[in-house]
């Protein structure tokens, strides 16, 4: 299952790197997302303050803490995008969270399915100024 989503992870992390290096901003409008990500990418920008996006961001941090035995505290979602893949939705998030009192930025990929629920596909610390 992880191999199936590797290309999507590469696309998302490439976008995060390019948006950081070249100051590309993601807005909440689908048209702006298509301009930034390209219509072929299939991702659409989401409002980082949307309650669903915040819930998914909290899930990503909590699930990472369970899997890696860490104690990262969710603060907020900075950027978010999603892509529909059949009956599943893949969310790419840039999250601000604190570790030992220091705010850091994390990139997360969460797969959500009505059948199997949420699954954390990827979570890693980014070297971005917060």
TrEMBL record:
As given in the record, the signal peptide range reads 1-29
Looking up Pfam families in the UniProt record yields:
SQAPI (PF16845)
Q: Which domain of life is it from?
A: Eukaryota
Q: Which UniProt keywords apply?
A: Protease inhibitor, Signal, Thiol protease inhibitor
Positions of the Cystatin domain? 49-124
Q: Which InterPro entries match?
A: Cystatin_dom, Cystatin_sf
The yes or no answer to whether the keyword Cell membrane is present is no
Record's protein name = Cysteine proteinase inhibitor 1-like
Q: Which Gene3D superfamilies match?
A: 3.10.450.10
């Amino acid at each position: 299952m992880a191999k199936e989503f590797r290309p999507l992870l590469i696309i998302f992390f490439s976008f995060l790197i390019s948006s950081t290096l070249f100051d590309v901003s993601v807005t909440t409008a689908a048209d702006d997302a298509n301009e930034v990500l390209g219509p072929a990418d299939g991702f659409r920008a989401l409002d980082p303050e949307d309650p669903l996006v915040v819930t998914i961001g909290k899930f990503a941090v909590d699930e990472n803490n369970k899997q890696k035995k860490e104690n990262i505290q969710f603060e907020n979602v900075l950027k978010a995008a999603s892509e529909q893949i059949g009956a599943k939705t893949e969310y790419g998030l840039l999250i601000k969270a604190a570790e030992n009192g220091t705010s850091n930025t994390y990139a997360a990929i969460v797969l959500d399915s009505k059948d199997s629920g949420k699954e954390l596909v990827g979570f890693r610390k980014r070297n971005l100024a917060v």
